[in-house]
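Please decode residue identities from the backbone states below.
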């Protein structure tokens, strides 16, 4: 696929320089659907080994140039990987209509009126304000759990498609792009967030879109593009960075990865200055969200400092849910970062320029290479966030740097294709190039079927609010009371209001829509205690009443239940217990 827009394409009768090599601005460089990446290099299919000529470019020239063949070669890897992600995204999407904590918040907040939503964001969840606005419009299509997850499925599918495009552009190989996209799609954590009604899939799509835009902008800097074309590409990059920041401010950490990529490219001061200026401008645009969310410290007070367990979780997020798959993909990723030389060379066009020099490493060869893009994306944002959380206020949560998984997928896809090329050279069978990639993808699928199935069950989320709500709705009698131990569990009522029509939330003094949070405000026990005796049956949702609680309203309410009521039923759900108490 050509990296240039239609206005960049042109023809010339003179030889063109390698793609990415400095040329005077305005010089026409042949580009287009039937001109392979790296135009201007030798295009003979019989290329001597070790010449540095990308084999993919030679094959592209030797292959039939029919429109159908070109179209298939260009779009088939993207379509296959995107279709795989779509299939995994819709598989079990409803999840028995159960929602976790974050999804209940999304559904309730997105259904608020704009004035009520503004009141909520001024108190909590300002960091999710843009996402709530997007979902507010989406709710016109439906409010069921399956429907509100569809934007995440679409976004993750787009992210997988862009992973394919990035890998193909930086290696010149559709196989490398296909393997990278499939590895990403088959990673269980990707399916998990593709089926979660939260902003993380949208953030991932924006981050990968900005990474692709960065590659295009950097190429334009040295590829003969006009000033206007360069400006448009940097504007696209800045817009995507700002949008991802509004979806989640911690996505701005991707700028640390992009900074490393830009510096490794060594395209000159102009390119660095353009990137820095656009990045600062985009970050400044997100300042209002950063300032508002900074005042909402209590919202992230539950986050603890990262430890080795968090590192292990992140490792499996990036490389696979099972140890076997994770080790396999790490080995493939390692193959992608080895320096080139001899038979163990890079896949076709591993650099956006002329490729690493023989016996050189990508870190010293300059240009935009797949490792120079993927390695910083994999390591830098997570490392910066973890270090910040160890030194200052803890903010590290693995999903905040989920987009680092794309770096792992890019490396694994390019690495397994590189292994395939080496294997093809050893046995002198070019057709074997794809065999290792197919084997790795099959392993990633088969060895992760159990985790893939598990994330499609109600117990896959930390809390299951659907089960308790349906249980109460099925067994409650009109006139029953309900107590939430603690008010955090009132989210069950927010997410499933129809199941609580028969019961009275008599302890609530001010509803959540007026307090601007998800819990509301409770009455003091002096009022709630006597009211409890007016009910024949009381449902308790959250935890089991106990006198071992710390002094406070919950302990006082527990004493009334244990002294004046009898336990009639108990039902356990994912981190939520429902008990029914009947008046003696």
């Amino acid at each position: 696929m050509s990296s240039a827009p239609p206005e960049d394409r042109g023809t010339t009768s003179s030889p063109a320089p390698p793609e990415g090599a400095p040329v005077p601005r305005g010089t026409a460089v042949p580009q287009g659907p039937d001109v392979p990446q790296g135009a201007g290099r030798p295009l003979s299919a019989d290329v001597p080994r070790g010449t540095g000529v990308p084999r993919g470019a030679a094959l592209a020239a030797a292959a039939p140039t029919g429109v159908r063949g070109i179209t298939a070669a260009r779009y088939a890897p993207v379509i296959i990987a995107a279709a795989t992600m779509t299939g995994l995204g819709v598989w079990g999407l409803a999840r028995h209509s159960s929602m976790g904590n974050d999804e209940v918040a999304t559904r309730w907040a997105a259904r608020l009126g704009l004035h009520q939503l503004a009141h909520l964001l001024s108190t909590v969840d300002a960091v999710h304000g843009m996402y709530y606005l997007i979902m507010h419009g989406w709710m016109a299509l439906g409010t069921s759990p399956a429907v509100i997850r569809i934007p995440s499925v679409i976004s993750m599918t787009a992210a997988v498609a862009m992973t394919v495009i990035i890998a193909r552009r930086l290696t010149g190989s559709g196989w490398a792009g296909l393997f990278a996209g499939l590895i990403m799609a088959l990673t269980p954590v990707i399916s998990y967030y593709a089926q979660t009604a939260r902003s993380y899939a949208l953030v991932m799509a924006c981050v990968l879109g900005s990474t692709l835009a960065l590659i295009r902008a950097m190429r334009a800097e040295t590829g003969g593009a006009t000033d206007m074309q360069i400006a448009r590409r940097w504007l696209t990059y800045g817009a995507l960075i700002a949008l991802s920041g509004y979806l989640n401010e911690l996505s701005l950490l991707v700028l640390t990865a992009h900074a490393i990529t830009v510096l490794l490219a060594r395209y000159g001061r102009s390119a660095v200055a353009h990137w820095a200026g656009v990045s600062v401008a985009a970050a400044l645009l997100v300042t209002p969200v950063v300032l508002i969310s900074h005042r909402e410290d209590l919202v992230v007070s539950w986050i603890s400092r990262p430890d080795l367990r968090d590192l292990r979780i992140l490792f499996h997020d990036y490389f696979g849910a099972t140890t076997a798959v994770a080790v396999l993909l790490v080995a493939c990723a390692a193959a992608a970062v080895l320096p080139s030389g001899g038979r163990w060379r890079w896949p076709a066009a591993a650099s956006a320029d002329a490729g690493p020099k023989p016996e050189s490493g990508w870190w010293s060869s300059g240009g935009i290479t797949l490792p120079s893009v993927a390695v910083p994306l994999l390591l830098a944002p997570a490392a910066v966030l973890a270090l910040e959380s160890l030194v200052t206020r803890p903010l590290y949560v693995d999903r905040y740097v989920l987009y680092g998984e794309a770096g792992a997928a890019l490396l694994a896809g390019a690495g397994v294709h590189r292994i395939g090329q080496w294997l093809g050279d050893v046995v002198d069978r070019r057709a074997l190039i794809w065999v290792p990639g197919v084997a790795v993808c099959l392993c990633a699928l088969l060895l992760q079927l159990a985790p893939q199935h598990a994330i499609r069950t109600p117990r896959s989320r930390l809390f299951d609010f659907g089960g308790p709500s349906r249980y109460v709705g099925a067994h409650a009698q009109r006139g029953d009371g309900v107590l939430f131990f603690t008010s955090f569990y009132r989210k069950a009522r927010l997410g499933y209001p129809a199941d609580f029509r028969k019961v009275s939330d008599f302890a609530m003094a001010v509803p959540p829509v007026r307090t601007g949070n998800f819990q509301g405000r409770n009455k003091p026990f002096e009022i709630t205690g006597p009211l409890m005796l007016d009910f024949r049956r009381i449902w308790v949702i959250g935890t089991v009443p106990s006198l071992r609680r710390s002094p406070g309203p919950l302990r006082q309410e527990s004493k009334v239940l244990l002294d004046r009521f009898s336990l009639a039923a108990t039902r356990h759900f994912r981190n939520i217990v429902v008990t029914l108490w009947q008046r003696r």
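Observation: The chain has 25 helices and seven strands.
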